[in-house]
User: Which sequence fits this backbone?
């Protein structure tokens, strides 16, 4: 059974930091890119960042460039999203997802598996 278990969400003050974790199981970690997405009510889900097991990564959102970083631990099949200098507009449900590299033209251009989200709330 494929599982993508996101954790680490919570309430944080503006300017603070938070690290999200996504533990993957049930598929070959090296065959997939893992991405972080976020969604606020009434808006479309947007991609935040994506990474492969070899460490190739992208940060898709200009608004988080220089503040967020994505990394992985292949031994643990876990991907992290380090979020710094958080702003109230970063408040969202954060999801991790897996995208098969064999069927991708570019990183995380589609999603094969979604995990359940974790809520991040940034207070002003």
Assistant:
């Amino acid at each position: 059974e494929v599982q993508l278990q996101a954790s680490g969400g919570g309430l944080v003050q503006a300017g603070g930091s938070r690290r999200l974790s996504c533990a993957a199981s049930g598929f070959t970690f090296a065959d997939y890119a893992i991405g972080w997405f976020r969604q606020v009510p009434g808006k479309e889900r947007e991609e935040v960042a994506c990474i492969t097991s070899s460490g190739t990564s992208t940060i898709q959102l200009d608004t988080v460039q220089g503040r967020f970083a994505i990394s992985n631990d292949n031994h643990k099949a876990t991907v992290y999203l380090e979020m710094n200098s958080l702003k109230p507009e970063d408040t969202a449900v954060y999801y991790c997802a897996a995208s098969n590299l064999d069927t991708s033209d570019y990183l995380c251009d589609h999603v094969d598996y979604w995990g359940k989200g974790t809520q991040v709330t940034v207070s002003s």
